[in-house]
């Protein structure tokens, strides 16, 4: 069992206590949240950085473009695996109701603009300020360091596994330096 699957297995058994139907909706809401709060973009960038690292550190100069294109074809699947595992970190710290509040906030045009560093209207600023003064925002501040450690640990393992897969594929195809 690879490290990423082992990590997923541990998180699943430690943090899933609800019934099956609740778990599915809870998980679904977390995945929706991670798709609208900038997480996907962040790790899409990390995926590309890993490919660049493989090109610079491992790949021979004659590695064909088709090799890189085939590696990119699995990007969505790899990102979806990461998001599914990241969801367990969210479950550890946030209730389903809190996830719904976060999803409502991050689905708003105000949060979308905030994430993209675009100018917000006065109404949107008031909406953001209202959220930032909420109990949930205070909770996020208080758990921030621990939550970040957990999500970063998951991301590190994912990046290691991604790099190892790429290195293995390069070696198997004979495209290493």
Description:
- This protein is an all-alpha fold.
- It has one domain.
- Helix content is about 80%, strand content about 0%.
- The protein contains nine helices and no strands.
- α2 packs across α5 (about 75-95), α2 (about 20-35) packs parallel to α6 (about 95-105) and α3 (about 40-55) packs parallel to α9 (about 135-175).
- The two termini are about 30 Å apart.
- The relative contact order is 0.16.
- The model is unreliable at about 15-20 (pLDDT under 50).
- Derived from helix and strand composition plus strand pairing, the structural class reads mainly alpha
Shape call: elongated
| Rg computed from alpha carbons, rounded to a whole number of angstroms | 19 Å
Helical fraction: over 70%
Kindly, what is the distance between the CA atoms of the first and last residues, rounded to a whole number of angstroms?
Answer: 29 Å
Largest sheet: none
Overall mean pLDDT stands at 89
Number of helices: 9
Low-confidence stretches: 17-21
Sequence of secondary-structure elements: HHHHHHHHH
The amount of beta strand, in percent, is under 5%
Q: Could you give the count of β-strands?
A: 0
The number of domains is 1
What's the helix and strand layout?
Blueprint lengths: L2 H13 L4 H17 L2 H19 L7 H9 L1 H19 L2 H11 L2 H7 L6 H11 L2 H39 L4
Helix pairs in contact: 1-5, 2-5, 2-6, 3-9, 5-9
């Amino acid at each position: 069992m690879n490290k990423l699957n082992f990590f997923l297995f541990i998180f699943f058994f430690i943090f899933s206590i609800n019934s099956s139907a609740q778990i599915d909706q809870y998980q679904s809401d977390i995945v929706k949240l991670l798709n609208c709060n900038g997480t996907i973009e962040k790790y899409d960038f990390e995926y590309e950085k890993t490919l660049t690292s493989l090109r610079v550190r491992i790949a021979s100069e004659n590695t064909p473009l088709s090799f890189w294109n085939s590696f990119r074809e699995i990007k969505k699947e790899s990102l979806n695996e990461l998001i599914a595992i990241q969801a367990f970190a969210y479950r550890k710290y946030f209730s389903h109701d809190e996830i719904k509040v976060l999803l409502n906030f991050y689905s708003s045009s105000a949060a979308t603009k905030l994430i993209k560093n675009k100018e917000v209207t006065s109404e949107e600023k008031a909406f953001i300020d209202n959220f930032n003064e909420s109990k949930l925002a205070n909770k996020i501040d208080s758990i921030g360091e621990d939550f970040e450690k957990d999500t970063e640990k998951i991301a590190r393992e994912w990046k290691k596994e991604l790099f190892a897969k790429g290195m293995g594929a390069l070696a198997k195809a004979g495209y290493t330096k």
